[in-house]
Design brief:
The complex is a heterodimer of chains A (614) and B (465).
Chain A (H helix, E strand, L loop, with lengths): L2 H66 L2 H10 L12 H8 L4 E5 L5 E4 L13 H6 L6 E6 L4 E11 L6 E8 L2 H5 L7 E7 L10 E2 L15 H10 L3 E5 L9 E9 L7 E10 L1 H51 L14 H62 L2 H33 L7 E4 H16 L7 E6 L6 E4 L1 H18 L4 E10 L2 E7 L7 H6 L15 H11 L3 E7 L3 E9 L9 H9 L1
Parallel strand pairs in A: 12-14
Antiparallel strand pairs in A: 1-2, 1-5, 3-4, 4-5, 6-7, 6-10, 8-9, 9-10, 11-13, 14-15, 15-17, 16-17
Helix pairs in contact in A: 1-7, 7-8, 8-9, 10-11, 11-13
Chain B lengths: L2 H24 L11 E4 L22 H10 L4 E3 L5 E3 L2 E6 L5 E6 L13 H11 L4 E5 L2 E5 L7 H5 L21 E7 L3 E6 L13 E4 L4 H10 L4 E4 L1 H9 L4 E3 L4 E7 L6 H13 L2 H7 L6 E2 L6 H4 L11 H8 L7 E5 L5 H17 L2 E5 L6 E7 L5 H11 L11 H13 L3 E7 L2 E4 L3 E2 L2 E2 L5 E2 L4 E2 L5
Parallel strand pairs in B: 1-10, 15-16, 15-17
Antiparallel strand pairs in B: 2-3, 4-5, 5-7, 6-7, 8-9, 9-10, 11-19, 12-19, 13-17, 13-18, 14-18, 20-23, 21-22
Helix pairs in contact in B: 7-10
The chains are: A alpha+beta (614), B alpha+beta (465).
Chain lengths: 614, 465
């Protein structure tokens, strides 16, 4: 990954994490705020319910008291006077009085609890109310919650009991109002809140027992979902809060606070459960809006971050990229590479340092070349001096012999003269040879490429040296040819290549004074032609290997140090390269790697010349 | 006991009641006046005016309202007077051959239907055959002959029933009768307007016209009476006492209606018979009568009332919860029965609820319902004739049961009723009278022995011509 991309990723990630952190923080704060608000609203609604409960209770008690003191009840009490057999004409009294006093429940009981008249269950006359004991104890007290048994169901209501004691035998008036949807509808509900009342009338949950003023509206939900909550309240007999999931949509969730409502009497039975529902829709929708905004801001931020970071990264990384390219140029040998310097920041200082470094490297290179050039001239001078000194000393001795011979007799002089002349000519010839070698090296011609068979050149060299390899008086050297017959044609100068291989064979022969194996091998490797010349001779050290191709360097006593330099020059002129693998005592192998240069044949002669000239 | 003895007993009882009623009704009689519109309201809402047409009707042909209505427009061959004696009507004389299988009835001459067609023996035979397809009726000159395979000594009582009134039936129009009023406007189930039949063989009636509102609840009828919109209305049994207390003119018949539980099918198992027996034992008839019926009617454990049979007191009407519970202890599973009642009758609902409560007390499960299909049904069945055999036969037919005999001694009658009760298809609860209240301006209207009324001889006080 490039530096620019890394920078861009860091920018984007930073923006994303920042937006995410802010969104999470806002969501957490929102949730807390909603929960606080929910608790407050629930508490307010419960208080309102209790107030409404108390208000209606007072209202019921007042109405029952009015009925108990009314003339019809007085007359009934006086007429019955403990004789229920005369109660037939009061059969409908409870119903009519309940209607006139707007009560849902009204019963007249005699002193034994037998029903004289009942509004809610008229045909129950004569039967005893099985809760009469607790009812009579509640006479004159505040209204209370009570479950009333009806013809085919039960109903929950707010009841009050009063007695009419105008006669010796009191008549009890039990009146009440149903705790129904009307009661619940009277509560002023805040938005997103609703209240339900579950009447605990049977052992098993029944949807019919759930009073829900919102039932006809769209907010009505399947009551069965409330079963776990109701069961929990019934089991634990205490307030419970649960989240009800009405559907897979989170916005349909509702937090329900379930509050048990108990009746009076023995054991304060749990008669009903008040369910206060808080819709989480607004919270969820707000949460969704926040989340959507966060995602939008995050996406926008990332896009902006990408744009900005692209610009910033480009601005920051451009000098770095220039430096990187400049460094690559320097690596490629362009030591005079410079980068532009903008500003005065760290990158600019780095660019200036880079420019100074390349300038210094260039200067050092020039100094190194100068030094090497001087060293080369010195080496050349030393070699020339060495080479020329050897023939000069015999020349000097010969000339001094001639001078001394002239002082002696003519016969002796002539004989010395003949001998000296022969020596002088030989030494002069030797000098000419030395000079010719140096001349040849300096005049190394450019290769004249033409299609040649690599293997044929190798075979030609072996054929040339075959007699010397097997010459009598010498330890024989075995020549081994490992030629790739599929080597094919290459573009090369056959004479120069022959000369280079001959030098390598000569070197190999010199390296095996005690005989050995000379191996010549050809092969193709990755489109290149490989020619290897190996021996099993004395081998070379690593230092010798590093210097072996330096001109005038030789490890031999009588070498000029130009043989391998010439080989390297020839290979280099062919666009190839030469390397050496050697180990002291185990032999040396020179490896020539040549391009096949076949595209050269497609070129016109002019192009070839132009190419070689270049 | 001979056949004639229990009949005398019935007649003696009837005389007492009718005389009381007649005395009440006629107490304010003054000189008759022609004209004046009589407004009548009734619960029945018949879809047809044909006296014999009950199969497609929503009101039974033998309901009191329906029978009263029929007798305004149609005449029977004979009638029964307040003493239960058969009187000539469209028939002048009759003759029965020994064995009571062959009856020859002489038809009154000079009578015409409302459409002007003369009454002939053929028309009478056609009418009787239409009402009773199984009868073998033939016309012979001015007489009609009715032949039976078996003895039929009660034929005249049968012929006196309104459903055997003589009507001339023509397709596409209302049946035409020979009664004191003819049809002017008929809105089936809602309203009927009648006008006086000027050519009535019994003489022109005083009233003209009569407007009858149908399908009115008891409560609506009383309201209409109080508002002066109705002159003659029916009174529910539980309202009779209250109406009397309020000083309204009230006429009640002898108990001529049976309130009973009718099972829709025979008991399927011995256990079900025990359940039915327990149900019969659980009903507190006395407290129901005292409170829900406000003292009206008689608790009943028999189909026929005591004034009709003379032996009804033999059947115990007391509730016996311990015995009912003891019986139920033998039952492995107590099913929930549905008890249907007439949803248009508030009293029926109360009665059904109380019966259910009593049954629950005994350990039974009864679910009152206004549905038409149920395991058992609370029904008010009119005893269509003072003749106990006809009345019993009619109840048996309603219960879907045959009755072995149609005549005999009181022992035979007792045995027949006992056999009918033994089927446990019927649990009798009460024998109820029917009550009517009329405006004080209605004079000389009559409550007949069978619980129907007639205004053929009635007139309106201060009637406008």
């Amino acid at each position: 990954m490039t530096f620019r991309r890394k920078l861009l990723a860091v920018f984007a990630l930073t923006v994303f994490l920042s937006v995410g952190a802010v969104a999470w923080l806002v969501l957490a704060l929102t949730r807390n705020a909603f929960e606080r608000s929910e608790d407050q609203r629930t508490a307010a609604l419960v208080t309102q319910f209790q107030q409404e409960f108390a208000r209606r209770g007072e209202d019921v008690a007042r109405r029952v008291e009015t009925i108990a003191a009314s003339d019809p009840v007085n007359r009934m009490a006086a007429a019955l006077n403990g004789s229920p057999s005369d109660s037939a004409e009061y059969f409908e009294l409870a119903k009519s009085m309940a209607e006139s006093h707007q009560l849902d429940f009204l019963e007249f009981l005699d002193e034994h609890g037998a029903i004289i008249s009942s509004a809610e269950w008229p045909t129950k006359f004569g039967y005893a109310d099985n809760t009469f004991e607790s009812l009579s104890a509640s006479s004159g007290q505040n209204a209370f919650l009570r479950r009333e048994e009806l013809q085919d169901s039960t109903a929950l209501g707010l009841f009050a009991v009063r007695s009419n004691a105008t006669s010796e035998h009191p008549v009890y008036v039990v009146g009440g109002r149903r705790l129904d949807n009307n009661f619940l509808s009277a509560l002023e509900l805040p938005a997103d809140m609703r209240v339900q009342l579950y009447q605990n009338s049977s052992q098993h949950f029944s949807p019919d027992a759930l009073l829900d003023p919102s039932a006809p509206s769209s907010r009505a939900r399947p009551a069965e979902k409330l079963v776990p909550l109701i069961d929990s309240v019934l089991r634990r007999n205490q307030e419970t809060t649960e989240v009800i999931n009405w559907s897979s949509d989170e916005a349909d969730e509702e937090v329900f606070h379930a509050i048990p409502l108990r009746g009076s009497g023995k054991g304060s039975p749990l008669l009903a459960i008040l369910l206060v529902g808080n819709s989480r829709r607004s919270y969820v929708e707000l949460k969704r809006r926040i989340r959507a905004s966060a995602f939008l801001a995050g996406a926008g931020g990332i896009i902006l971050a990408i744009l900005f970071s692209s610009w910033a990264a480009a601005r920051v990384t451009r000098p770095m990229e220039q430096l990187a390219r400049a460094a690559q140029d320097v690596t490629a040998g362009h030591w005079d590479t410079n980068v532009e310097v903008h500003g005065k920041d760290e990158v600019a200082q780095l660019a200036e340092s880079f420019n100074r470094m390349t300038a210094e490297l260039l200067a050092q290179k020039e100094r190194l070349l100068q030094t090497e050039r001087v060293a080369a001239w010195r080496e050349l001078a030393r070699r020339l001096a060495h080479e020329l000194k050897n023939p000069l000393f015999p020349l000097q001795l010969t000339v001094e012999n001639l001078l001394r011979a002239r002082e002696q007799g003519p016969e002796q002089f002539d004989e010395v003269f003949r001998e000296s002349s022969t020596t002088l000519l030989a030494e002069i010839s030797n000098l000419k040879t030395i000079i010719g070698r140096f001349s040849d090296f300096s005049k190394m011609p450019p290769p004249q490429l033409q299609p040649v068979q690599g293997n044929e050149i190798v075979r030609g060299v072996v054929k040339l040296f075959q007699p010397q390899l097997q010459a009598p008086g010498h330890v024989p050297i075995t020549c081994k040819l490992e030629l790739d017959e599929k080597l094919g044609t290459i573009a090369a100068d056959p004479d120069l290549l022959h000369r280079a291989l001959s030098n390598l064979v000569l070197n190999a022969m010199d390296a095996m004074p005690d005989g050995g194996i000379l191996t010549l091998r050809t092969r193709r490797d990755n489109g290149k032609v490989m020619i290897e010349v190996g021996d099993t001779g004395t081998g070379m050290t690593r230092e010798e290997c590093e210097r072996i191709f330096t001109p005038y360097y030789t490890s031999k006593q009588h070498g000029t140090g130009l043989g391998l330099a010439i080989v390297q020059s020839v290979v280099s002129d062919h666009g190839g390269r030469i390397s050496v693998q050697s180990e002291p005592g185990r032999g040396t192998t020179f490896i020539i790697q040549l391009p096949d240069n076949l595209e050269t044949f497609q070129k016109t002669p002019e192009q070839q010349r132009a190419g070689h000239a270049g | 006991m001979r056949h004639i003895e229990w009949r005398r007993l019935v007649i003696r009882n009837l005389i007492v009641v009718i005389m009381v009623a007649a005395a009440q009704v006629a107490s304010a009689e003054t000189r008759p006046q022609y004209g004046g519109v009589l407004h009548i309201a009734m619960r029945a809402a018949p879809a047809s005016l044909d006296p014999a047409d009950g199969l497609l009707d929503n009101a039974a042909p033998d309901s009191f309202g329906r029978r009263s209505l029929a007798m305004l427009m149609f005449d029977t061959l004979v009638t029964t007077d307040e003493n239960g004696r058969v009187q000539a009507s469209l028939a002048t004389t009759w003759r029965v051959l020994p064995g009571s299988q062959h009856w020859q009835i002489q038809i009154r001459r000079g009578v015409t239907f409302h459409d002007g067609t003369p009454l002939t023996a053929e028309a009478v035979a056609a009418s009787l055959h239409a009402a009773n397809p199984s009868w073998n009726v033939s016309a012979d000159g001015d007489s009609v002959t009715i032949e039976w395979d078996n003895s039929s000594p009660d034929l005249l009582q049968e012929l006196a029933l309104p459903r055997n009134a003589i009507a001339r039936r023509t397709s596409g129009s209302n049946p035409s009768g020979t009664g004191p009023f003819h049809i002017v406007d008929w809105q089936p189930g809602k309203k009927l307007a009648l006008a006086a039949n000027e050519d009535c063989w019994r003489g022109r009636p005083f009233l003209d016209p009569i407007e009858i509102e149908m399908g009115k609840t008891f409560h609506d009828q009383i309201t209409e009476l109080e508002l002066g919109n109705a002159d003659l209305v029916e009174v529910a049994p539980d309202q009779a006492h209250r109406a009397q207390q309020k000083g309204r003119s009230l006429a009640s018949s002898m108990p001529v209606e049976l309130l009973a539980l009718f099972f829709s099918r025979d008991a399927a198992s011995p256990e079900e018979k025990v359940l039915r027996q327990a149900l019969a034992l659980s009903v507190e008839r006395r407290s129901i009568r005292r409170v829900l019926l406000q003292g009206v009617g008689q608790p009943a454990a028999s189909i026929l009332p005591d004034w009709m049979s003379g032996y009804a007191f033999v059947f115990s009407t007391d509730a016996d919860l311990p015995r009912a519970r003891q019986a139920l202890a033998q039952v492995h599973r107590v099913p929930t029965w549905t008890l249907a009642y007439d949803a248009t009758n508030p009293l029926a609902r109360l009665l059904a609820e109380r019966i259910s409560l009593n049954a629950k007390d005994a350990g039974l499960a009864l679910q009152p319902t206004a549905s038409t299909t149920a395991d058992l049904r609370l029904m008010q069945v009119p005893l269509v004739s003072p003749d106990p055999w006809i009345a019993l036969g009619n109840v048996a037919a309603l219960a879907g049961l045959p009755i072995g005999k149609s005549q005999g001694t009181v022992e035979d009658l007792y045995s027949s009723e006992l056999a009918l009760l033994a089927t446990q298809r019927v649990i009798p609860l009460f024998h109820l009278p029917v009550s009517y209240s009329a405006a004080t301006t209605v004079k000389n209207w009559t409550l007949r022995a069978d619980g129907t009324w007639t205004v053929a001889d009635a007139w309106l006080e201060n009637a406008k011509q």
